[in-house]
Write a structure and sequence with these properties.
Elements: E1 3-6, E2 9-12, E3 18-24, H1 31-44, E4 48-53, H2 56-59, H3 74-81, H4 88-97, E5 101-106, H5 109-118, E6 123-125, H6 133-141, E7 146-149, H7 155-167, E8 173-178, H8 193-201, E9 205-209, H9 215-222, E10 227-231, H10 249-266, H11 278-283, E11 287-290, E12 305-308, H12 319-322
Parallel strand pairs: 3-4, 3-10, 4-5, 6-7, 7-8, 8-9, 9-10
Antiparallel strand pairs: 1-2, 11-12
């Protein structure tokens, strides 16, 4: 089976969907907000809270052009929303206190080492970093599982990344399908690509989502996603680049509940009636009923039979076998016919 182990949790086929509540930069460099985000994720029933560990100096050239969806200079924005790296240990402890895994995406080699020391149970690598082979190698050398987003990636990009991880000693990898956009259009999601990734690489597959609402996440789980990653915030009205497309606390709770309901609804591939349907199986299906009084010894004619509820008499498919037989007892109109009576 395709599975990886993240802390004490098995993730993959046959296991509940692993839900990553993506706090990202929505802490706004305010420790009280960060703690509240952890509380919200725990109350929603998420499995992990994920942050992002980056610095403007190691991520962007100061000459990088501004992205269309951002309102300010890219380098200046990244510098303003960097997460203080001294938070790592305290975040890890706060997550553990709330029964959550502490995850953070590293964007430079120093971040890999710092997060490893903080005790992350796995490394989440962002889509933009799939070609950052030194980063993939460093993460793999820790021996911890890697969750790799694949937004914008070709199968060739993914294959090269997996080869790099494997050659560096990484053994457990999960891949997340992702559509890059903030938010992306639904027609750009192509959730069926999860099937292609699963078939091509035989690893756990999930979905990293930036859409508004929870529809695409439920659709992904119904299609077999082993992991869902979703941004959340205390309020979409807060200042910052990732707040506008993130879920608010009540929506995060709704998403996790809907994921668990979807998993329950998927059930098994066996087609049969369930124990909860037994009362209807017996009481509301049809069977043979006497259409009139039939005296003992009479030969049954088809006009003497009706097909009515309940369903614990002779199955209607046996009409040809019943017609022409004698009844052994007096049968009153609307009596339910059983084999003992003929």
């Amino acid at each position: 089976m395709r599975q990886v182990r993240i802390g004490e949790r098995l993730v993959g086929d046959g296991q509940p969907c692993y839900v990553i509540a993506e706090a990202g930069s929505n802490h706004n460099r305010d420790w009280s907000i960060a703690l509240r985000l952890i509380e919200v994720a725990a109350q929603a029933g998420a499995d992990a809270v994920k942050w992002q560990t980056y610095s403007a100096e190691t991520m962007y050239s100061k000459k990088a052009p501004r992205f269309a969806h951002l309102k300010e200079d890219t380098w200046e924005l990244i510098k303003r929303i960097e997460m203080p790296r001294e938070w790592h240990g305290d975040l890890a402890r706060a997550c553990a206190d709330h029964g959550l895994h502490f995850l953070s995406t590293p964007f430079d080699l120093a971040a890999v080492e710092q997060l490893n020391q903080a005790g992350v149970p796995a490394f989440k690598i962002a889509s933009f970093e799939i070609t950052h082979l030194p980063l993939l190698k460093a993460a793999a050398q820790t021996g911890k599982p890697i969750i790799l987003s694949t937004g914008m990636a070709s199968l060739g990009d993914i294959e090269l990344a997996l080869e790099t991880i494997d050659q560096a000693g990484g053994k457990e990898v999960a891949l997340l399908h992702c559509a890059i956009g903030y938010p992306p259009r639904f027609e750009d999601l192509h959730l069926r690509a999860m099937d292609t990734i699963r078939q091509a690489f035989d690893v756990p597959v999930g979905f990293s989502d930036h859409t508004l609402g929870i529809v695409s996440d439920i659709a992904a789980v119904a299609r077999g996603a082993n992991i869902i990653e979703k941004h959340f915030t205390l309020s979409r009205q807060m200042e910052g680049p990732d707040h506008p497309f993130a879920l608010e606390p009540g929506e995060l709770r709704e998403m996790v509940a809907a994921i668990r309901q979807t998993e329950a609804a998927l059930g098994r591939p066996i087609k049969h009636h369930t124990p909860s349907e037994e009362v209807f199986y017996q009481g509301a299906r049809r069977s043979l009923v006497a259409a009139c009084r039939i005296p003992r010894g009479a030969v049954i004619e088809e006009k003497m039979l009706a097909v009515k509820r309940p369903g614990y008499g002779i199955h209607p498919k046996f009409i040809p076998l019943v017609v022409g037989r004698q009844v052994k007892v007096d049968v009153e109109e609307d009596d339910i016919l059983t084999w003992e009576m003929v």
